[in-house]
Amino acid sequence: VLRRQHKASFRAIQDLTKDKHLFHYLHLYFSWILKAGAHRVTEKVLEGPPREELLTDYEAQQTDEAVLAVNTDNKSESTAADEKKGWSPVFTTLRQMLQVLGFAKFHLLAFNVVQGNQLIVRGQPEGLVLSIFETLKILIPSRCFKCVPYSDVYKESWTCNFLGLKTDTEIPTHILESHLYTLMDIKEQFNSSEQTSNNPFKHYSFEIRGKELVHGPQILKKIEEALLNKHFSDSVLDQYLCALKEEWME
């Protein structure tokens, strides 16, 4: 440790070490450390605080990975069987959902998702219900996404904020009357037996029940403007949405 003598003036560290290239060496070594770390460390965006059940989720993930190899063949067989039963459309992007639902319905869905209200999707086919959740979850931080994909009983909002229900599942009256919940009912239309139209969703109608009591956050307005911007490709849009969420969380 270099110490200053009594009543002596402060001197630069270069004078104390008698090395005029000291800062060049320090800069060189620090740069090497950062470069070496970049090869070993990966940046990860923290989207929301860790959940209490994070450790349980990790243990469950390890178990699922162990069982995955056993279930691969069974899954392939079930997929083939589903293909024989029939085909159902799915949502893949927010833009596609906006075009199918229209701006008013999409805005109501997105508003409640961003606000943290529970989204309930009731109907069939199951694949269509799941695709709605997979498409909308990009609007919120990943750790804020708690989903029960397809159930035959209602689940409370503290259990999940995305809930899929079978067609005949009853929902408590106080839930339907609350502004903290949004319900989407998927109904099949049997007026046409063949899919001759280019619209794969022509056999389905989407009824949405919900309320918008306050002005939506600024991030929702920016997201909707980006979705309507034809100059944004899908890849650019994904990066833009990620940047918006980072700015929002700060």
Automatic annotation (TrEMBL):
GO molecular function, one term: GTPase activator activity
Cellular component, GO annotation: cytosol
One GO BP annotation of this record: negative regulation of transcription by RNA polymerase II
InterPro entries: FLCN/SMCR8_DENN, FLCN_DENN_C_sf, Folliculin, Folliculin_DENN
Protein name in the entry: Folliculin-like
